[in-house]
Amino acid sequence: MAGLFENLDNICRYVSEKTDDLAQKISEEMAVQKIQSQIREEDREIACIFQKIGELVYEEMKAESAADEKLGTLIAAVGIKKSSIQEHKKRIAKIKNMDTCMNCGEFVEHSAVYCPYCGKKIEKCEPEETSEADLEEIDTDLTT
Asked: What is d(CA 15, CA 13) in angstroms, rounded to the nearest whole number?
């Protein structure tokens, strides 16, 4: 009987040690996951900063009517793409039976006079249409 209790005691110690090892590994893995999550968040923030830098440069160059022809073409391409995105958002708004704020692009109720997201007055006018020829010209300029 003493041998049986000794074996059970050894088994319990072994299981306890392995449980402690497993708990330690889980704790380490959770710490690593938390740090990796922080790294991903920092990377997202860097990407946002880069995007803001690009937007500032874009606005600056657009305001200066860029002398560089290729840069001017790229700026025009961004304008056309933004118009296209706005049209896509309008289609989504129509499906959702809502309007789209022309300032921030958020969906707002048809009855809204001001956007609840950015505070700007909701304009109900249609933007200028971009022709297929304009899009093809920009695409051709971008590939050369």
From this structure: 6
Sign of CA dihedral 101, 107, 109, 114: negative
State how far the Cα of 136 lies from the Cα of 111, in Å rounded to an integer. 37
Q: What is the pTM (predicted TM-score) of this model?
A: 0.40
Q: 53 φ, ψ to 5°?
A: -60, -45
Cα→Cα distances 116→91, 92, 123, Å: 20, 18, 14
φ/ψ (deg, to 5) at 86: -60, -40
Which of 15 and 36 is assigned the larger pLDDT?
Answer: 15
- CA angle 75/81/82 to nearest 5° reads 90
Residue 144 DSSP code: -
